[in-house]
């Protein structure tokens, strides 16, 4: 669940990064800072959903 949220957020932030650069805004953060932010945000969202009792479907959970 957390990995899926992280991946989605990283893809969203990286896809909008190109639009920002084309518009001429020079203060674009680095790729690593965007990825770090997306990872932290993904963890926070996943933790929040887990506290609400949301559980992903059992077929998406890997046995460790």
Structural description of this entry:
The protein is mainly alpha-helical and 64 residues long. The chain has one domain (2-54). The chain has helices at 2-22, 31-51. Helix 1 (2-22) runs antiparallel to helix 2 (31-51).
Query: What's the overall geometry?
Result: elongated
Total strands: the figure is 0
Helix-strand sequence: HH
| Beta-strand content | under 5%
Give a short synopsis of this structure.
With 64 residues, the chain is mainly α. The protein has one domain.
Layout of helices and strands, plus pairs?
Elements lengths: L1 H21 L8 H21 L13
Helix pairs in contact: 1-2
Question: What attributes does this structure have?
Answer:
elongated; 2 helices
């Amino acid at each position: 669940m957390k990995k899926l949220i992280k991946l989605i957020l990283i893809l969203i932030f990286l896809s909008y990064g190109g639009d920002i650069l084309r518009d001429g805004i020079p203060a674009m953060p680095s790729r690593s800072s965007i990825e770090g932010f997306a990872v932290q945000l993904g963890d926070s969202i996943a933790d929040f959903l887990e506290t609400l009792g949301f559980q992903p479907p059992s077929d998406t959970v890997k046995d460790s």
